[in-house]
Amino acid sequence: MRSIIDRIKEGNVLLSDGAWGTMLFHLGLESTACPELWNITNPDKVYQVAKSYVHAGADIIETNSFGGSKLKLDMYGLGDMARDINHAAARISREAAGEDVCVFGSIGPSGKILMMGDVSMTQVYDAFSEQAISLEEGGANALIIETMTALDEADIAIKAVKENTSLPVVCTFTFDKTVKGDYRTMMGVSPAEMVSTLISSGATIVGANCGNGFDGMVEIAKEIRKTDQSVYLMIQANAGIPEILDGESNYKEGPEEMAAKLPYLFEQNVNIIGGCCGTTPDHIAHFADAIKLHNENK
Amino acid sequence: MEDILEQLSQCIERGKVDIHAAFPSDMVGEPGADELTIKAIAQGFSAEEILNKALFSGMQMVGVRFRENQIFIPEVLMAAKAMSTAMTHLNSFFKQSIIQQKGTFIIGTAAGDMHDIGKSLVGMIVEGGGWDVVDLGTNVSTQMFINAIEEHPDCIVGISALLTTTMLNMEKTVNEIKVKYPNKHILVGGAPVNQSFCDSIGANFYSSEPHTALDYLNTTLENHQQ
Questions:
Q1: How far apart are CA B26 and CA B43, in angstroms?
Q2: Could you say which of A155, B49, B51, B109 has the lowest number of CB atoms within 10 Å?
Q3: What CATH number is attached to the domain comprising B185?
Q4: How far A155 CA lies from chain B's nearest CA (Å)?
Q5: Pair B70, B110 in one domain
Q6: Does residue A70 belong to the interface with chain B, where contact is any CB pair within 8 Å?
Q7: The whole model's pTM is what?
Q8: Residues of A in contact with B166 (CB under 8 A)
């Protein structure tokens, strides 16, 4: 398999997958259950999600390991299973991916704020290291540290990956629009601050995920490009802000609507495009058509 | 004479804990909440004056500045740390019942939801506003809320959720609390929550950010006292 970096260097926009959590809930995951435990207890359903994105045309699929660090699993009393859970997560996605699709092992935030002192830097580093090693052993081709908001935690996670695996690191942050109209994470980090810090920490690809919908992501991509025209950029937008209807959450931005807006991301030279919460294989299939057209006509 | 209360209020607002603190960088070497509280007591200010004119006013500005995105979570955490440092010098006055808390606020994250940060932030702002806060933590079952209400019958309840899936568990908790305690005030908040969801589950108030939660508690208290 060609490396993801080589494929980006060829100049094509690559397509990643969409949401995992909302898909697993549709398959019966209960809201009080640990999603990552399904890698062990319901591997066929996790495989089903992974495969659905391969069929939709994704070049990259992630793993069901967003909350798979020991620190997060401890909240369910499953911290001791971190190694097995992450290994299984990568194995399932690797099997679904086949020859041509790349697997990004997902690493989400620890859920702790380092400056509060309720967890040490060493504990965070060790938890991310264990997760990274297990995902690599399970067959991940790169690791994605995502939905981050704090520079210190992202820096530790990137170092944990770089110092314990041979995999390239992707790191994406989650921004909100401030009342002044610019973008910051809840910890106050701007897109520009994110880019410079993550590159010096050792990330190969940076970007943004989650958020409040597609339009916001275009503005964030612009802010990133204002400070760095050449960094490899990945954007995974939510399908808007969810609304509750009849006891179920509904995301408003449909596959056609989001796919029609992809040219705004092409204009910003975004290298990898995918979806986050609320996006489905149908969204990704529509993205695939738009990206194919773009790559053929570039 | 009141300059010291103004200075102390500034230390809370800026999160200046003590003279040794490196944060904020433009106040390095200056006395912080720790030293100024001791000094204010020595100058004869009552604990109540220090609380109302310095600590609460400082925390109120923190709430306003957070709402206006002038500051973010790290600055709020530092302000809360400065506040709790000042409070260590005032605790003995509380124990002697010289000053009273406004009331009790019970807060927790909805069942199934492990997110701590937003809920804790609300707790800090409310505590900084003079309320006794009972933090039940994350993944709080309906029964845990009911047990806490039994222990603090006059409390007001806050429930937080960060996920669209767990916000649905709020409804069950609100319903069961309202069956047992029809007049109990319940406020809800969190990223996916909005006013129409709050209305649909029968909660009393939707708080879009920490300071509106404190405003609601204070208003409820005033209405109750009238």
A1: 27
A2: B49
A3: 3.40.50.280
A4: 17
A5: no
A6: no
A7: 0.89
A8: 31-32
